[in-house]
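Worked example 2:
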Amino acid sequence: MSRRLQVLVPEGLDARIRKAAQRTQLSKGEWVRQAIERALAEERPAADPLQKLASLGAPTADIEQMLAEIEAGRG
């Protein structure tokens, strides 16, 4: 089911949309729908840094233990 979305745009933008729609032989409405779809497809959600870190599967431990292991590895 389709829903109506009313968006007010400046005259200059409306003219640009109309010309772009004519070039692609689409109605203004269809051109705008496709432009919105393209913009949403390109949108990438911001990565949650903690989730990204957890996905690395890196070893974890108490900070003092990790520092001791680092120091032991340098010797």
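Residues 8-44 form one domain. The chain is about 65% helix and 0% strand.
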